[in-house]
């Protein structure tokens, strides 16, 4: 089980009574369905402790962009169908169907998460934490999403970030900040330049 990371805990006194697990799961589903777009900053930590920062842009259904800090020649883009990893330093491109990645839970708001997710007790009633993995496809990896209760955010939850484990058990932690919801986002944000050399025409 992926435990809720310590960064999700808040300093304010606990004043909120814990909700039943099924109620919190339904609240997470409502939150995901309430988000048409989301933008903000992210901090990424990999299993080796390497930290990168950047900006996140999300548009439902299925579109996401991780734009890394200046000097990092990496881009991750979801275009609604596939999640693409582009490394411009070596001109390499890798693509996976979005549904076969841990981020599929986040990027398919119409999916009923009740069959693949369960609430994890964080020990803090202000925190809602869920683990999600497809029991029929464990090779897709798993994700632990962490939220704080916030009446000003969609469905009363604010996403703090997630911990993802891919099929090779590579662990990636994403922390979010400065989130904005449901502002217009152009689809052009989810296009990318292919760095691979073009084949010569015969």
From TrEMBL:
CDD domains: LolA (cd16325)
UniProt key word Signal: yes
Protein origin, superkingdom: Bacteria
Signal sequence, renumbered to the chain: 1-18
The UniProt record lists the keyword S-adenosyl-L-methionine: no
Keyword set, alphabetical order: Lipoprotein, Signal
InterPro entries: LolA/LolB/LppX, OM_lipoprot_carrier_LolA-like
One Pfam short name: LolA
Name of the molecule in the record: Outer membrane lipoprotein carrier protein LolA
């Amino acid at each position: 089980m992926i435990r809720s990371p310590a960064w999700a805990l808040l300093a304010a006194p606990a004043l909120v009574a814990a909700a039943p697990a099924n109620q919190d799961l339904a609240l997470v589903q409502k939150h995901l369905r309430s988000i048409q777009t989301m933008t903000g900053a992210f901090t990424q930590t990999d299993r080796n402790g390497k930290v990168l920062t950047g900006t996140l842009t999300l548009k439902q259904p299925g579109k996401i962009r991780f734009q890394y800090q200046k000097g990092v020649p990496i881009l991750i883009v979801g275009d609604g169908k596939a999640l693409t990893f582009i490394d411009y330093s070596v001109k390499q491109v890798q693509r996976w169907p979005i549904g076969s990645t841990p981020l599929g839970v986040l990027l398919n708001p119409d999916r009923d998460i009740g069959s693949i997710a369960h609430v994890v007790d964080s020990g803090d009633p202000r925190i809602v934490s869920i683990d999600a993995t497809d029991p029929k496809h464990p090779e897709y990896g798993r994700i632990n999403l962490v939220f704080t209760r916030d009446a000003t955010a969609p469905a009363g939850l604010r996403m703090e970030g997630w911990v993802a484990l891919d099929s090779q058990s590579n662990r990636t932690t994403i922390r979010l900040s400065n989130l904005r919801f449901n502002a217009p986002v152009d689809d052009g944000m989810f296009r990318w330049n292919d760095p691979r050399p073009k084949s010569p025409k015969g």
